Amino acid sequence: MNFNNWFLQLQTRTVAQIGAGLVAFKQLLARLNNPQYNYKIIHVAGTNGKGTLCTLLAHTLTCAGYKTGLFVSPHLVSPAERIQINGKAISKKEFKEVVQTVLAVQQEPLNFFELLTAAALVYFARQQTAYVVLETGLGGRKDPTNVCDPVLSVITSVGLDHTQILGDTLCQIASEKAGIIKPGVPVLCGEVAQEAAEVLTQRARVQEAPLTWVQVGQVCREVGRDFEKGFTHLRMPDKQTWKLHLLGNKQTQNACLVYAATQQLHIPQHAIKSAFETVQLPGRFERIQRGKTCFILDGAHNPQAVENLVEFWKQTPYAKQDPVLVCAFMKDKDFSRMLALLVPHFARVIVTVPPSMRGATKMDLKESLNAPNITFEPDYQVALKESQKAKVVLCTGSFYLVGAVRNWIEKSRLKIS
Asked: Which contacts qualify for 385-389: CB closer than 8 Å, 24 or more apart?
């Protein structure tokens, strides 16, 4: 069985299970010799931005000379992307081996994310990493990553997503994310609404955790953009201008949080600057040229992320080039709201289905496909071929779609800029 089919089987076998829960998960890790205590952990939660922040922070630690593990989700092309050391994904052989190690000691059925979390923690211990940047899967309080004792906690943002699980108010969702705040452990928080800020502040006070609010302008601010090369120009505290190899409406916020984190971790300036300039983050406003068509790939997958994308899109040169939108969504997302935000900015919209068992189909979407500029094409590859008549195509709505588009382009042996 090839690796991708093995992973899909793993996903299918565990996706419906409730899981062991935190108590049993801790007991599982004890049987694995508590791998989570073998390295320093930075624990990251947030509705949006956490994948970007984790990748940039891990790259910064690597540039500083530390062997650094990174655990993120979802993946774009290969499941191995979820577990990395110094920017290199785990090998398929090692991935299978470490999963089997976990399965060999399980006493209660693990759900998919518990299994991957345990496997990642074991792998990082085996590889003797110095730091691990650990991204929560869902919420924070009950997330299996919350078994860790971090040296630093980061909460990037609080928005309405996964409301059927985390709650339908910002206060409820903030309470779940505040669950990663540990006694006495410093915590950094990005810009959030007032009601969410009050919840996070109260939790930090109860836990006696030093809390720092990080806002754009306090640490650094944006002073320019280079769309052709994919850079945001930042004015730093010492008045120097740095280049950040990321574009987007919230990337300056992410950079500010990472910079603040590196100050807590005493990382030298040269390593931070090098990391900002050289970070590679596929699927976050990524520009790919395919013949005469420029594809922009962005994994915005909930209303807050799409709203940020739309605000940024209006400021780009691509918005004035009669672009086509190709989008797809997951069933458990507020796709009606996401489409409503996106559709007014494109003369032509092609809605398709992402390659995932959780992808929204025409039946799911039918009440949201009423605008005259929307067409539906269930095969994303056909949708992409149809869109190639346009000079610019934006692909968004799901990381699964973005990953599939990227894979489609790579298989065509095309240059990614």
From this structure: 386/350, 387/293, 387/324, 387/326, 387/350, 388/290, 388/291, 388/293
- Cα angle: 219, vertex 263, 186; to 5 degrees: 100
Decide if 307 contacts 87 (C-beta within 8 A).
no
What domains can be seen in the chain, in order of their start residue?
3-278 (3.40.1190.10), 286-411 (3.90.190.20)
Query: pLDDT digit string (tens) for 10-61?
Result: 777 655 467 888 999 999 999 999 999 999 999 999 988 899 999 999 999 9
Residue 89's H or E segment, with its range, is: strand 88-89
Cα–Cα dist 354/401, whole Å:
5
pLDDT at residue 413 is higher than 60:
no
Q: Which secondary structure element, helix H or strand E, spans residue 334, and what is its range?
A: none
- The mean of the pLDDT values for the chain is 91
Edge-to-edge strands, sheet with 40-45: 88-89, 83-85, 68-71, 131-135, 40-45, 152-155, 187-189, 211-213
User: Cβ–Cβ contacts within 10 Å for residue 410, how many?
Assistant: 12
Reported confidence tier of residue 417, pLDDT bands at 50, 70, 90: very low
Residue 229 identity (one-letter amino acid): K
> Any idea which residue has 């577990």 for tokens?
83
Cβ atoms of residues 42 and 152 within 8 Å: yes
Pair type for strands 241-244 and 231-235 = antiparallel
Q: Assess whether pLDDT exceeds 50 at residue 225.
A: yes
- Here the tokens at position 274 are 């090098």
Q: What are phi and psi of 331, to 5 degrees?
A: -60, -35
